[in-house]
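Subject: Protein record for review, amino acid sequence with backbone structure tokens
How to read it: Take the token row as a discrete description of the fold.
Enclosed: The protein record, placed directly beneath this head.
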Amino acid sequence: MSRILLVLLMLGSLSFPPAALAREELSPAGNPITWVKLGQVKVKTEVVFSPEKLYLGLGQRQGLAEGQGMLFIMPTLVIQEFCMRDMRFPIDFIWLVPGRVVGITKNAPFEDQRACYASPGPVNYVLEVPASFCERHGIKVGDPVSW
């Protein structure tokens, strides 16, 4: 059974297209890949959900290409806190609940490895994208989200 399908069964709140499940693509790090649509903008994302992958995130990577991101599937709907531990480049955080963007943290610098950022309210999904991505693509709070 694909890992994405297993997560879907566990969480019950995601709706990936069946075609994506049939031909699961994996990143070089072994994470499943899917497309996230924010308004009219599509982002190719690595999906992480295990405690180890959630902890590591994008840490220790050299960068993130334009149009790519990492989607964190959190186990509960609570205020999430993300730290810049082991980050080597700045990012935007897009705080999500099913179906919409509820917050954005723009241009989080990586230089302070102890810096942490909290969601503006309870969320169960977080999308990390390259710094200034939201500004370049006009992503804003309230935008619809699907994957």
